[in-house]
Amino acid sequence: MKNTSTALLGIALATSVAMGGSILPEGFDITCQLAGSDGVWSAQNNQGDFEVNPETGAISGASAGNAWSAEWDSIAFTSNPSLTTAWAFTNTTGSTQTFTVTFTTPISAISGQLEMFGSITGGLTANTPGTAAEIWAPTGGSIYTAYVDGVAVSPTLMNDPFHVATNPPTATAPLGFESFEFEPGPASAMNSISIEHTFTLTAGDSVTFNSAFQIIPAPAGIALFAMFGLGASRRRRS
Known about the structure:
Number of helices: 2
Structural class: mainly beta
Helix content: 10-25%
Mean pLDDT: 86
Low-confidence stretches: 1-20, 220-238
Radius of gyration: 19 Å
């Protein structure tokens, strides 16, 4: 069944665009930074790269920076809150580079006992025949880090010494799948959630990622919400 809040968001975004408004909602952003560079590319400053699906609310598009190109296949989010990303990224330089790509979405505030769920998977592609593509986690760091209100949360995924390489003549290699479930979250989530991807990628090669992050009330909270919702619906029918 389609997520109602996501569908309504898609309709609202499409209506905003039709009326000459912004494609991306306020508070939503994708940023990309090359290690050692002061410049940060921002989706909010390149809204012409994107389009929104009015039925699903998913955002897609294609972008390019001075050292990279990206295809944003599907970026979906709800105010529940949850965030999912599916995208492909290419190092367009002639040398190995480290990149940080971060997705941030606004959320509706929630508090109390919270639980977190996260995952990441993907694949690596060598774009030069006969050569191996490689990807690494940053030294002492992780490819996947989730944030709540701008503060990093644990656990992280694809941690150092994470490393994947293709084996020529095979041009592709899977990154595997890592996840966490029912991890205790912060006492509240008020403004935003984010997924940060930091990785080192060989020259001219590409990587795809599918990542997700969600926060929900702990089971006791869910039960209370369910009871309240049922009671409210009964009162409305009576």
